[in-house]
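HUMAN: Can I see a protein plus its fold?

ASSISTANT:
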Amino acid sequence: MTTLYLLEPSDPGAAWAPFAGVRPVAELRAGRWRIRERWERALGLRAAGILGSHVDGFSEGDEPPCTEPAQVRGPAVVAASWFAPTAAATFAFPPSVRRLEHDGHAVAWIIPAGERFRGPTEEGGAAGIDGLLLRGTFALLDALEAFLGADCRDAPESPVPAYAIVLGDARLVHAAPDAAIEPGVVFDARHGAVVIEAGAEVRHGTRLEGPVWVGPGARIVGGDVRASAIGPECRVRGEVAASVFLGYANKAHDGYVGHSVVGRWVNLGAGTTTSNLKNTYGPVRLEVDGERIETGRLNLGTLFGDHAKTAIGTLLPTGTVVGAGANVFGASAVPKYVRPFAWGLAGERMSGEGFLRVAERVMGRRGIACEGARRDSLLRTYARVAAP
């Protein structure tokens, strides 16, 4: 039986901030699905492992083991985490094919039985695969724009509550039977489908403009959400546009988040607002620890790392990167790069013990115990990415 592995970038670097060393690229969300899940759907295989030294030992409870690159023996497929496939149907492997290509780049390698994976190569017969090459975390917004519409249209049909207000085709509103939708919620399906997963809640005073995906257990407690993917167990209120929430994040108050990526366990204080367009209307450039990254995007808000937090009334400039575990407070002007585990903006840093104490409290509020492999994973993250 063929086994699927996800190969991480060998040196994620600044382009994958604020997740390099924190979270596998394969576990980032590209549209409705995580990159790993897109590969699983495209190939009809379940992933057995994620290979990358920058996330060795990462554990969150619902992903395959994350290890340093090791010997992989066929029959196997090793797929690039920096590529998000479009296809949702099983891919057929002709006997002569040894790799999958997109736009001239190899993005997966097929290892026959009895052979070993020796690393990415351009050798052997190739077959094409549709999808999107990802140049960094900011490209998750490109993926959102490319995939979310089709991802939401593919949802199983389910009836919309009779007391909901639907603009457009009601067949494009998909709400799980056990989703809690209060009277007066507006579903605008004129530009895309809206999907509400099992256990999610949408309260009165909310307007969802498709394409929108609301993950299992998430709560939308008011405001205007459009063209966004809201991951599991998030709490969202206010205005959200064209953004990706990985899961378990908290934006329970008013404030604008646009063209942003919000990591797991992020908490955005009331009134937190992201700028997503320069006054010059020009392309947005990221600045990560002294390195400049040209994104080519006109709209780009903030990239929030896992466990990041902002104070009440925080205003974030266009193209900001907030590192994992950082606490943003204490200054009127937030810099475009906030270091991982920063405690305020005066150069202080959280200790590893302090970070874990806060993480335990935050995760406990969602019924998740910070212990065992999960706790060890957070300790490894702190050791890898905390600034000296």
